[in-house]
Write a structure and sequence with these properties.
Elements: H1 2-26, H2 47-85, H3 90-118
Helix pairs in contact: 1-2, 2-3
Amino acid sequence: MNRQILFAGVMVLGVALLAGISSLLFWQSGAIASSEVVALEVMPVHPDVLRWGYLAAALATIVGSVAAAYAVATVGAAAVGALAEKPELFGRMVILVGLAEGIAIYGLIISVLILNRLG
């Protein structure tokens, strides 16, 4: 049980660190258009910012997928054990597995937001 709590804590800290690094990269003075630039003018993004942005998007997807896989495996195993004893719990177990899968969707949404900000 302690290993599961430690793993979940590491995942949460990893996502928070990833969000902090990506927000710092995007709010650098050279990464966004300044107020002096005309809004219609397209400002090129520095290659370093692109590199780190793509890495942040990839890591958001990877961490979200790995965390969702771990959560689905854990919840799925518990759900199968519970369904063996009480089959009437099927609806509740499907909801719990779906909630665990939502972690991957959150990671994908974050990576899409990062990629939209780059492009």
